[in-house]
Write a structure and sequence with these properties.
The chain is mainly α and about 140 residues long. The protein has one domain: Tyrosine recombinase, N-terminal domain (DNA polymerase, domain 1, Orthogonal Bundle). The chain has helices at about 5-10, 15-20, 25-35, 40-55, 65-80, 85-100, 110-125.
Length: about 140
């Protein structure tokens, strides 16, 4: 399992101030493992890869407009590939989680991203099909 996204997070916020002590070093891999078990590592890696593939797009702290563009691409792919809205929700969650972990203001709280998340839910969510057959 890749830990590079979490490793990057540890360079920011309060973590950066506290891991200089060599006695913490053996605990870092265990912390990363614990965190990754409860958060989608692949989702985090996809955000990081996308951000790094674009000019001027920081992984942290993320810029709301750039996150909105990333989510728009996920919406397009979800529709094309028949995925549920959970793909977009997972990406939104992991970006917010990473920012909180690194002690940054989560971009999800930005009105633009709240609107994108709601629009994504409406666009990607498939209507419920009735099980009743028509006569």
């Amino acid at each position: 399992m890749s830990t590079s996204f979490i490793s990057d997070l540890l360079r920011f916020g309060d973590f950066a101030k506290s891991i200089d002590d060599p006695s913490f070093q053996p605990l870092v891999p265990r912390l990363l493992d614990l965190l990754l078990k409860f958060n989608a590592a692949n989702t985090a890696q996809r955000w990081k890869a996308w951000a790094r593939s674009k000019l001027g797009v920081p992984v942290l702290p993320a810029i709301p407009l750039q996150v909105a563009l990333y989510l728009t691409g996920l919406v397009d792919r979800a529709i094309q590939q028949g995925h549920s809205v959970s793909v977009i929700e997972s990406a939104t969650y992991i970006i917010r989680w990473g920012h909180r972990l690194a002690d940054f203001e989560p971009p999800k709280e930005h009105p633009l991203l709240m609107d994108v998340a709601e629009s994504a839910r409406r666009k990607v969510t498939r209507p419920v099909q009735s099980n009743q057959s028509t006569m």
